[in-house]
Specification:
Layout lengths: L15 H14 L4 E7 L4 H21 L3 E12 L2 E12 L2 E2 L2 E2 L15
Antiparallel strand pairs: 1-3, 2-3, 4-5
Length: 117
Amino acid sequence: MKIIREPDRFHFDGDREAFAAWMLSVIDKSPDRLALFPMPHRDTDEGLDELEDVVRTAYDLAKAQRPNLVVKLLHGVDLGNGVRNSEIVVVIHEHRWIGGACVHGCPDRRAPWAGEN
C-alpha cells in the first residue's frame, strides 16, 4: 500500500556534501528507500539551472557511495497559500534488485541477469 506523505526539506547553504549526506539519511529512514523534496522557486531560468546543478552535484556525490541510487527531477508547482514556492520536485530512490524487480516497491524493472544488489 502506497502512502502519500509530506516532502522532506533541507535548507541548502551551499554545502553540496552536506546536501548529499542529508539525501542519504532521508533514504535510510524511509521503508521504501525514497526521498522526495521540492527545490525553492526561482524567478529566472538561470536560477533554475543553478538549482538543477546543485541537485546534480549532490546526487553525484551520494551516488558515488550508493551505486543503486536514481534521481528524477519532476515539474511540480507548489502553491502554498497562493504563493509559488517550488518548480522542481526531486525524487531520489535507492533500488535493491532481486530477480529483475526492485524490492523497495518501485515499478522499475531490469533484466534479471544484470546483477543483483
